[in-house]
Batch of 2 targets.
Target 1
Amino acid sequence: MSGNSQKQPNRIALLTSGGDAPGMNAAIRATTLYALHHGIEVIGFKHGYNGLIHNEWMALDEPVVREIIGSGGTILKSARCEEFKSPAGMQQAADNLKALDIDALVVIGGDGSFIGLTKFKQFYPGQTIGIPGTIDNDIDGTDHTIGFATAVDTAVNAIDKIRDTADAFERIFLVEVMGRKSGFLALNVGIACAAEHIITFENFSNPGIELQHIASKIHRIKKSRGQCSYLIVSAENLYPGGANQLASDLADYASIECIPCVLGYIQRGGDPVAKDRILATHMGAFAVKQLLAGHTDVMIGIDGQHCLQVPLASSTKHYKEVNASLLAIQEDLQDLL
Amino acid sequence: MSGNSQKQPNRIALLTSGGDAPGMNAAIRATTLYALHHGIEVIGFKHGYNGLIHNEWMALDEPVVREIIGSGGTILKSARCEEFKSPAGMQQAADNLKALDIDALVVIGGDGSFIGLTKFKQFYPGQTIGIPGTIDNDIDGTDHTIGFATAVDTAVNAIDKIRDTADAFERIFLVEVMGRKSGFLALNVGIACAAEHIITFENFSNPGIELQHIASKIHRIKKSRGQCSYLIVSAENLYPGGANQLASDLADYASIECIPCVLGYIQRGGDPVAKDRILATHMGAFAVKQLLAGHTDVMIGIDGQHCLQVPLASSTKHYKEVNASLLAIQEDLQDLL
Amino acid sequence: MSGNSQKQPNRIALLTSGGDAPGMNAAIRATTLYALHHGIEVIGFKHGYNGLIHNEWMALDEPVVREIIGSGGTILKSARCEEFKSPAGMQQAADNLKALDIDALVVIGGDGSFIGLTKFKQFYPGQTIGIPGTIDNDIDGTDHTIGFATAVDTAVNAIDKIRDTADAFERIFLVEVMGRKSGFLALNVGIACAAEHIITFENFSNPGIELQHIASKIHRIKKSRGQCSYLIVSAENLYPGGANQLASDLADYASIECIPCVLGYIQRGGDPVAKDRILATHMGAFAVKQLLAGHTDVMIGIDGQHCLQVPLASSTKHYKEVNASLLAIQEDLQDLL
Amino acid sequence: MSGNSQKQPNRIALLTSGGDAPGMNAAIRATTLYALHHGIEVIGFKHGYNGLIHNEWMALDEPVVREIIGSGGTILKSARCEEFKSPAGMQQAADNLKALDIDALVVIGGDGSFIGLTKFKQFYPGQTIGIPGTIDNDIDGTDHTIGFATAVDTAVNAIDKIRDTADAFERIFLVEVMGRKSGFLALNVGIACAAEHIITFENFSNPGIELQHIASKIHRIKKSRGQCSYLIVSAENLYPGGANQLASDLADYASIECIPCVLGYIQRGGDPVAKDRILATHMGAFAVKQLLAGHTDVMIGIDGQHCLQVPLASSTKHYKEVNASLLAIQEDLQDLL
């Protein structure tokens, strides 16, 4: 839960953790500049929680962050960190923060990073705050995470190209997008690409039913439209064996030939689109305001046009479902085809 | 005000009016497909209200709209229409709709188009519905209009290039973006480009004060940063004479040399980004749902993640202000520089 | 060999065959418009040689091609065609051309298409001409093929995004690009992405040596640079089992962990870049000039800034090697790392 | 003229001068890495010739240039320099080079920069070499200059967006592109955008004739096509008063309404496309080879696929004309409309 401490922080630390997401640099920039604006010093730990444990850091000032708003990746680097899961690792991290007189720690990352940060409260007495940065948009308590909008556009641009070939050859393509355990990317990308079929966690029951469903739809469309392109967008980690297996099963069980494409890592990088730059700027500045107001153990979220804070632990407690209204519209449109 | 009529429409008409906006085609597609899904026939009038008066139309079916979700412009063409401002023009339009047995008219456009549509109720007894499509985002009752997200990205991508030259030469650039009488484009583009200065309707008092403000900030920054690039983003229709005059005045009154750039019409076209495709799909399908529910004289809006309807007349009654929190953050960041 | 016939063609046919390539539409447009300019009628067969055999065609005139210069894919669709490999298929195709009074056949495609077209001379007495369209650039007799420039940019843009993640995590990525049996894409993409290592047909000896080579380079670089990102770009169809197997072998034999990415079909589609639009326009117009001059059985090529014609059969006779000077530079730069 | 000196340079200097061009950073990188590969030290002067006179420089090594191949602008900054036109300025520059033991100076820039470098031979005894970097492609002795390909694509992407609006409104747009005193950008951009009319230095006689020519073509097209979009692409510095004046004159003298757009500075920046990255890498490495071979007073050029050297003075002596064959094709296509 958030609470109020008495005094303004003098020095804070930032780090980026987990999968990189476009806009993390914009969040580093905004947090840094806004803190400086309020007379707070800022340092950045490198390589996620590893840097916290091994005391790798750099000072963050205006020249360092001046030109990074539009760059993908993260100037602080990122990493997964097994050591931070152990009490010894957390203690070492807390000791380093204390030695550097760090009054608050801001972590830009996803749910794994926030689970770690929540536990770290037992070792570190300073303020902690999370800024949600992940392309998967799978963090509860915020409409959007930093990086999601860019990843959607990246995937859509890629699939628009695949559609050209699908149209030219009048063939079926099956494209697997990222998203870890959630369907935000698949649903949004699929709608924006006018996918004839979207497979996401919310509408998937089991492999056999899905196979049958796809097959009957394709046969129906071939009758009504004649030969034409057909695009299936699928979330990863859903159909056992992924897109390649699904394509193989469609061939075996329904004599349907489709070309599987796994979009892969292109979805994680790239210059952030305007929306992610603005969201990151908004969240970074808002995070500093919360520190100034004495809040701790919170995550910054966006609700419509407004930033808010939620208890950090709540952000990882519930599965966030995709927009039900959009999903229903997609299924209605699919029925028509 | 919205109300309920008794029966479902059998045939509806669409048109696009006013300045074109990326995503209009996606809205045409979604409205058409969703209507077809419910057994409603769809036709499209061409050239905005002109087509309504001169009876230029085409049937809209699945093959016509199949590949347009990602195309800029509008397959129905657009235009301004003086004739529609006269009772004679409106009567002719209503007669044409009646002759074609059109139960409802859906207009995708901006505030001028909606003012016309509101008046048209006196002549046309069918249902009317507006879908907000304009890059300016200056329609009240909706967080976003179709086309705004794309226009922001287009302007940001253009200014990112200008920044390269500004950095290489360490010079001052003054970029004027569109927006008609509102500052949404200027504020969002400016934040995303890390503009050192943004001039928008909400923070502009008068030319003299603005000149002095810019000059003092530039002199301060030159002292603190040394020579460096400096970017001013300005809304159009604000400083008298526009960017060229402002650049000239900065030279005359403050001996500050800056290069004016008017981004112009590139902001209106282009393939819609994913967000505009999704928003247009959402709004188009939602509009058909409202027609089915018997609503009329409403505009579709988006509030956070959810579509809603508002009385059509209310959408053009009030000036919609930019996000005050974002503006305040921008001004704090500017102060720091 | 090319020769002169006596009279100007009255009616010609176009088709696109083999893998689609960005710029095919621009070639269709230019050939059509230039032919029309000289009073020649134009029709387009659909689905490659299949349309020729099954008599599927459409008239090509100015409105049909007006807006296609910048569209990926091909409005004439494409396909592979087994039937065209048989004498019966070829005879049917020739009969259809005769029945339609087609004086010349222009085929936009790759080497498989040109081998077919060369054989087709035995059945068809009209003029034949090939325009090289393939992203692989593996056609002899021309510096560049239509689609190559776009595919290089597409792959480079994708890998730039992957580099962001590689930099953020300081990890090794292994990206497989297309190219069929040639290394043009791999070399050009690798240089443009500043790949630390490029595996192409010209520098590959055998899997064991390649493995050893990569491993020793990576170990050397880790010593000199410390932890950093490292990018390997590989041609497809080269290392047995492709990028996934190579990654697995690097783990097994050298304990090097790298992430394999297969870019796949995104490289085939997309709006053509300016260079491909201009090349296609140049070649299309030049092809018509050759027809007017009575040439037949030739392929259009580009040599520096100038179009030329080469005997069609020669275009598929020799393996075209990548630019040796660029390859040598790349290897020198790699040595330095 | 080029000649041979006896020994290999030990230390060289780079600078970028004149208008920035995408790919300058790639040229800095390649020259630096290739020199390092041969055991040569490299420094970079900042702000063009100004840095040479005022002794502003930085060491260039592998970490400095590691990530710059894809960045627009120039890490060495650029500038025009009046001081370098005076003997005193040149002498000071030469003294600085001598004091730093610089054996060779490599200048990446355009014709103004090369005229300066040619004169500088009287003051500086070391080797000099020019690498052509300008978006205008107006340097003789090379098919292409670094930055040209990117600028063409940037302008084409911008105009594709304008075409959307032109199509939606069926209106005439007049777009002015850069190019200084040459028509390479106008011709290549115009062809790639399927411009209905291109105004370039090679086909322009005088304002009155041009006006009449445009007007009669537009009237003819309106008759044949009906209302439709119409795009004129014009080189800058050609019609007196530029696009705005031409639009005004078309209105006054021919009652033709068209919308003028000046693309402006977006054409100078942006991440370089693959072609410019490869060209810059090729030229940078080749420049070092020429230094090693003892050549001096030369410019690097590209002829088809191969780099070559030409006497530096010759590169600025003659006006380079656009590809006559492309221009003729464009005019034939225009006649058809």
Target 2
Amino acid sequence: MNAVLKLLHHIQVHFNFRVLAGDIGFNVHTVFLNCINELGTDEQIAKWVPLAQNYNIIGTYAQTELGHGTYLRGLETTATFDMSTQEFLINTPKISAMKWWPGDLGRSATHALVLAQLYIKGKNYGMHPFLVQIRSLHDHSPLPGITVGDIGPKMGFAHVDNGYLFLRNIRIPLQNMLSRYSQVLPDGRYVKRGSEKINYFSMILVRVNMIGEVVVGTLTKACMIAIRYSVVRRQSEFKPGAAEAKILDYQTQQGKLLPQLATVYAFHFLCPYLLDYYNLVHHEIKSGNFKSLPELHALTAGMKALVTEYSTAGVEVCRRACGGHGYSMLSGLPSLYSYVLAACTYEGENTVLYLQTARYLVKCLAMGQSGQSLPQSVAYLTSALSRRCQARDKSDFLKTEIYLDAFEHRACRLIRGAASKVQALVHSGLEQYEAWNSTSVELLEASMAHCQYIIVKVFVDTVEKLNSDPGIHISLKRLCHLFALHWIRTNAGSFLHNEYISGNQLDMVTEIYLDLLLLLRKEAVVLVDAFDYTDEQLNSALGSYDGQVYQRLFEWAQKAPENHQVNSAYEKHMKPLFHSALSKL
Amino acid sequence: MNAVLKLLHHIQVHFNFRVLAGDIGFNVHTVFLNCINELGTDEQIAKWVPLAQNYNIIGTYAQTELGHGTYLRGLETTATFDMSTQEFLINTPKISAMKWWPGDLGRSATHALVLAQLYIKGKNYGMHPFLVQIRSLHDHSPLPGITVGDIGPKMGFAHVDNGYLFLRNIRIPLQNMLSRYSQVLPDGRYVKRGSEKINYFSMILVRVNMIGEVVVGTLTKACMIAIRYSVVRRQSEFKPGAAEAKILDYQTQQGKLLPQLATVYAFHFLCPYLLDYYNLVHHEIKSGNFKSLPELHALTAGMKALVTEYSTAGVEVCRRACGGHGYSMLSGLPSLYSYVLAACTYEGENTVLYLQTARYLVKCLAMGQSGQSLPQSVAYLTSALSRRCQARDKSDFLKTEIYLDAFEHRACRLIRGAASKVQALVHSGLEQYEAWNSTSVELLEASMAHCQYIIVKVFVDTVEKLNSDPGIHISLKRLCHLFALHWIRTNAGSFLHNEYISGNQLDMVTEIYLDLLLLLRKEAVVLVDAFDYTDEQLNSALGSYDGQVYQRLFEWAQKAPENHQVNSAYEKHMKPLFHSALSKL
């Protein structure tokens, strides 16, 4: 498997950032900077960017409120234009409007990019970004009218600075509203350039980046730890009379870990696909063309939801696959889990994101049905559906066109089905919003099916295009097959539903899936080693390269502080009780 | 819904233990005590139990080893009988044989019930329990030959005492082997009374108790927090122009939380069923009848796996359903999650347990096929299968016999299918152990299907037998229907597979499931309030009875220690940088 080891170089290029581990403070400072660069005028960029780049100010992105999360139009913070002084008045009208969660806000930031409802002469113009200084540059104390602090302990990120912010009549100059795409003129007129969706654009980049930098890397590390441990750990008599078997030789362990390994590769290949498309749309927008923004938004929303959901579940599968030792912090797995878990909620709650994608899909379907041409990623929505899966024996499920058709068929069917239900409910007299809500469980499933189809397609396309060594190519193809068939198995109901796939064909899927597990069992260690995280980066007693699991667990455990302290309960409480046992034993 | 409130009293009876919250130290001390009571002779009980009851000694149950978990026959610790001194020599032969994980061992216990391989004159008699003193009763220091300490930090239970233990030539008297069911005589003869499975018996009780006391209570609390929060939290414009809607009015939120609420009731009713059966078998064993032990073992193994798995998943669904605030420790949800999570691994790793149940099922099937009568819980394995689901319209899925038949049919089909595959592989030339391993992914699915069938059946039977108020009865029936239909939807593939249920019927299931969500939406708050945990017990800013979510979050956050400390980074690192910005702003 020397061939597979060569993957290392190919992967390394994309992993330069990841291997730096990157848990620096002032994380959100970068988001602050990006926002100014994206949403600021040239003058605003010239003024603020150098200050932020040199850390002369520390910025935070203050969007989420105590009572308002992913639904941005619901934000309650206000920015009221005062023409007499040419200033905005920034206010937190009530407790649920407090900014809550922004990173670096509670103990660090000097400035906040506050997202607030713009009011001019009593009229609301929607959410806009405002630069607000919150702490003194003299002594770091909160400015008058500012209440700021840390929101307290969180799962996993106990020590990270997340803050709250209450603003009382804070005055900022007219120039502090970021004005590349919408501007308030001194006389109170409001000028808009481009789509109102542009305020979401910086969030799109955050989502694309977090998939690559935070989420996929975490699943990769977890796979590396669990797969390495599974060839060291032995359990139970496998063959009667023989030594206990390596746990990776158990089919159930393969069925847990190898689909996660395939997922690592699938998501790894998804990242450049999303980034390329982001860059394309970014380029278009810079030249005033906003037409691809809805597709990019819908694509990244759903993908953020799916990738974070599956990566989190995958890390937990890896953790549990290590049995009791996966529960020890010394395995490194619990901290990976609580790290990636947060991503299911931050930068957009996953259910809300899936439904945003669903809304786009239903809209596109209607457009397509009325004869309009559709963007590339959703063009399949109006294609003619093949009626049945064409597989005749199990080896047919190693043909990418067979399973791609299955994913396409299913996504199409679910989206069309959900859209029809919405329409039927409206026809039966329900309001559009009621009809939508009454279908949202099904819309969610349809949205996931769409994302799954795209991911399988990107995996297939990427592997086909790679000019790699034949040995690598075979391994990657196996991973791709396993990945697709794993999703067919775990979502079997929606493939069987309209008899697109028969029970008999599903049995073939299971057979070939189990065959692939056995083949990939032999390649699993090199396929994770290819990612080449160092022992220091993994920080795991279970996952080190040398496989000295038990020695390391024992060494590390002995260093625990509890082992170097006196048990104070003994002297005070237990001693008299124990002494009275002496005469009886 | 006054009727539903009356549930309170009914439930309270079963919940007396839970509401005490019960996080006392010396948790495993009770297991130690139970083991002596179960496995000790009358003399051993008379000697040791009073000492332990009075806390004159603190006991731990030392079974799991660093390199050996659920597979008990693989344990490496040895107890060698030395006839010349009438003692056992207890030894840890190598590092992987160290006892690892026992509760209270690392910093507290004076005695350990050590599970070790018994050797007499060079012959191994398998695992037996030995009472070993590990610390001095004079000064609590480890005795000569004992290395003992804490295994270090764990997910969630960072401060709980879990220990390691290395034993070097520790001598204990002959009388310290617990000898109710197997005994070593002074001349080295080995006497056995009853099944060798009896050593597992105390673990069965631990599993039954943990389901009721630890697992179900945790899911209940999580549901209570999430459902209460969901009628306070508002998000997004539901009806255009109206106020933001309560999130529990969203179908997707109902689809997350209400199945969890139904699961709480299902598992709640499962507990007395398991405990009753345990008591019955316990009674039989005390009178020397071991015939029901295999069934009890298989039943509780699978149920422990399923209940812990679904409860953990359910707590996490509740946590995420609270959005960002569910990630805050102040919600109370993260600690519930990491508490229940551990139960998926301790007292038997879930995959291993499911496969133990599968082994029993396959064995029973073969017995049944050869004409032998089967124990009650598995009698259905040889029943004639109805060919198709008889439902004609959606209301048919509110008939318990319709969905019970579906669960029975599916479990039966999966178990028979997996058993046939094992047989076919053996016929084709594979060794039995290879055939078993090559089928274990399918055996696992079959085992889960069996457990699901039993749980749905117990829910149906319990609701039918309850003499409750008609209002309560209707609510409980709805929960039971929702519970069953939720599992049909989420496991749709295996119901559709052989066309037992058609795609059309599955659409009916979805329809009636969505109808039930809407009906139960109105009853959800009273149905969780019925469990009546106090605010102090929930310890959640989101779940308090008065619904003052935002005020409480803000109050509690302000108390965080970070808000009462000076930011030391400012003076040292940031001040010069910030000061240089002063001239530019």
